[in-house]
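INFO  loader      accepted 1 record
INFO  loader      residues=103
INFO  predictor   begin
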Amino acid sequence: MKCEQCKKNIDKRTIQQNRYFHKAVTLLADEAGYSLEEMKVLIKHEFGLYDEFSNKKTGETFYVYKSTANLTKSEFADLTEKLLIFCNRAGILIQTPEEYFES
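INFO  predictor   done
INFO  writer      dumping tokens
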């Protein structure tokens, strides 16, 4: 029986998934006028990849963003699909993964 960490490592996103995601995020960032890192944070916020905390004394709310490196293949595929839908609704056309890897 494999340990949970071992299973998670086996199910990590693929290099192709990562390459495609970064290409799509770069295109979106360029179109929207953000840096790649800024766009990644905006995407994490848009799609709920964060934990929200409040300072008990001041009531100030802050966010701790999750790393996409810890997503499974399936979770990363879901995020990529949401990104494509988001871009499409914003009128930003980005190739699907199939189109990207065929060209």
